[in-house]
Amino acid sequence: MKEEYFSINVRSDRPGGDIKIIDLEGELDITTLSALRDMFDDLYENKYYQLIINFSNVKYIDSTIFGLLVNKLKISRHNFGDIKIFGLNEQLMRIFKVLGGLKIYKIYENEKKAVEAFKE
Amino acid sequence: MRIQHKLFLVMVAVTIIPLIIFGSLSLNQSSKIIKTRVLVQLQKLGVDQSKIIKEYFLNLDEEIKWFETNDNFQLYIRYFDSGKDISFLKSLLESSFSYRMKNIEELQAIRFYSSDKQVKFELGKLEFFPRDIKEEYLLTNSVFLFRTEDGFLRMNVVKPIFLEGFETTRGYLVLGLNSTRFLNLFDNWTLGENEEAIGFILDTKNRFFAHTKDSKILESSKSIDFEKNTFTDRDIKDKFIYLKFVLSETPYLTKDSYLYAAVSLNKFMQPVNLLRKMVIWVGIASLLVALFLSYLMAKTIIQPVESLVEGARIVARGDLNYQIPLQRTDELGELTDTFNEMIRNLKEAYRKLENQIELVNADLARTNEELKISNEELQKKQRQIEEELDFARQVQEGLLPDVPEKLVGIDLASKMIPAKAVGGDFFAYDFDPDFPQRISIGIGDVSGKGVPAALLMVAVRDQFQSITKSEKAPGRVLSLLNKSIHQDIGAELFVTFLNAEIDVKNMVLLVSSGGHHPALVYRNKTGEIEEVSSGGIILGMFADIKYQEKVVEINKGDVILLYTDGVVEAVSPVKEMFGIDKLKGLFKTYANDSAGNICYNLYQKILDFVESTPQFDDITIIVAKIGGTDQ
After folding, report:
1. B581 touching A (Cβ < 8 Å)
2. DSSP per-residue string spanning B288-328
3. Model ipTM?
4. What's the predicted TM-score (pTM) here?
C-alpha cells in the first residue's frame, strides 16, 4: 500500500465480443466501491453477464469490495453468465482463501484460459 | 525599432542599393566602352601619323643625300691630303651653304666637328647648336632635338664625313635645321569629333623627342625633367591613354623609337566623372525622397495604428466609453469602425453581465443565508450523530462479554478497539456453568464499517447467542447462523465468522469458520504455530451452506489466538501492513506469558506499528491459554 489510486477499464475479448474483460488497477476499498458498482450496473444494463476480472495490477482489496464482487457473481450466474478471475497476487490469493473466495470463484492462470473457459 | 525606422530602411534599401549597384556597373561599363572607342581612334590616328612622319624623314633624307653628293662638293674634297689644313672645307661649304639653303628649307646652320669633337668651323646661326656637345649628340645619321636657351626646339641632323685623301680624319657634319616644319606634323591631331589628341616620339631611353604643340603636354610634362628629355613609364601610364607605333625604319631615328598617340587621361575620364557625379546626386536625391516617403507613410499608416493602439490601451484599462476618433475611408478606417463597434458591444455585454452578476449575487446571498442555516443544522446533526455514536460505542463495549467466572482450565483474555466509534467486529461466548471446562467462542467481522456494520453486528451476535442455546456443534451453529442472516442482510453485506469450541475436559479444539482468519494455535511442545480452519465461505451471501468442523487435539500450555482483519491489515505510516508473519512471530515470543499479557503485548505492538496512522478497521484479539483440568 504505497500509493492510493485505482483505475477501471472495460474491454471486449475481441471486437464485438460478448465477453467483457475488466482491468482493475491499484488499491480497491470502500472509497472505490461506488465506481465499481456503477461499472457493473452499466454492464448488466447492456446484458453483459460473461465477465472476466483482471487482478494483475491490483495490490489490495478490502472486504466491502469482496462483498460487492460476490453479489455480482450471484447476479451474473443468475443470468446464465459468470465472473471469472485471473491475476491474483499472493496477498489477494490469501484474502480470497480466507474469505472462501476460492470456493465460489473460478480462478485462471491468464486471460486466454479464462476466455476459453467461457467458450467450452 | 519603430515601424517608421523600418520603413525608412526599406525605402533606402529599395532606392540606394540598386542605385549603387547599377551606378557602379554602368560607370564601369561606360568607361570600358569609352576606352575601347578611344583606342580604336588612336589606332587609326597613330597609323596615319607614323606614315606622315616617315614620309617627312624620307624627303629630308633625299634632300640631304643630294646635298652630300653634290658634284662640286665631292670634287673638291677629293683633292686634299691627310694632315693638311682643312680650312678649305670651310670655304667649300661656305660657298655651297647659301646655295643649299634654297634646296633644304630648314637648313639654318652648319657646324663641323673633328673626330675629337672639336669645333673646326661653323656657318649660319649659332643658336641652332647646343652649348656642350655630348657623345649622344653625335650619333651617326641621327636626328636630335634640343631646347635652346630661348626655349625653342631645334633640330640637328648629324652626318659623318669621310674626306678622300684624309683617311685618318673623321668628322661630324651637323646640320642645324629649323624644326618648325617637323613640329607642324604634330599639330592638329584630332580624334573623331574634333577631340584633341597628343602625339610624341620617345626613343629607347624614353627620351622626349618630339611632341604636339598642345600646351597640355607641356603642362603634363612639368613634372618631367624636360632638360633630360625623359619620361618614365609611370609618367606615361598615369597621364595618358596611348598606343605605341614603331618608327624604326625611318631614316635618322634610332631603331627603337616609338610614336605615341595619346589622349590625356583626365580628358578621357571627363564623361565618366560626370556620370559618377550624377550617380551621387541622384543617390542623395533618392535618400531625401526615401526620408520624405517614409515620413509620409508613417503619417498615413502608423499614426492611425498608434491611435488604435492607444484606444486599445484605454479600453484595456477598463474605459468602455472610449471611441477612437478616426475618420478614414480605407482599411484602417474599417478597422477603427470595427474596433469602436466591438467596444460598444463589449460595453453592452458588460452591462448585461453586471446585471446578471447582481442577480446572481442576490441569489448567492440568499443561498448563503440558507446554507448558513443548513450548515448550522448539519453541525447540530453531526454533533447529535457523534453523541449517538459515542453512546453506541458505549453500548457496543457493554455488549462485549466478560470472561465467565466459572470457566475452568482456560486462561482467557480479549481486547477490542473499534475503528470509527462503532465497528463491525464482535465476539461472544457460549458458556454453561454446568460444563465449566468447555467454552465456545464466536468471533466475527461484518463487512463495511460504521453504523450499518455495527447494527448488523448486533443482530449477528444476538443470532449467535440465540442459536447456541439449543445447538452446540460449531459447524451446525454456523450453518444456522448463515441461514438466519442471509434473510436479514443487504445484497453486498456479509459476515466472516469463526466458532471455536475449546474443551479442556477432552482436550480438543473444534473450529468451524466462514471466511474468517484461521485460529492460530501455539504448540507448547514444539514452539510452532498451527493454523486451524475449516475453510468455509463467508456468511450471509448464500443460503443453505453446510459448514464443516475441524477438530484438533490440544495440550497444556498451548495457546489459541483468534483475531480479525484489523490486526493483520493494520497499516504503518509508511503504508506497510502488519501481516500474518509479524503476528505469528510476536505470538511465539509472548506465548509463554499469561493470556492477559499476551493480549496486552500484541495490542501494544500493533499500536507501536501504526503509530499515528488513523485506524481503518476494528481490531479484535482473543487469547485462550490451555491450563488443563488440574487448574
Report:
1. no
2. HHHHHHHHHHIIIIIHHHHHHHHHHHHHHTT-TT-------
3. 0.84
4. 0.50
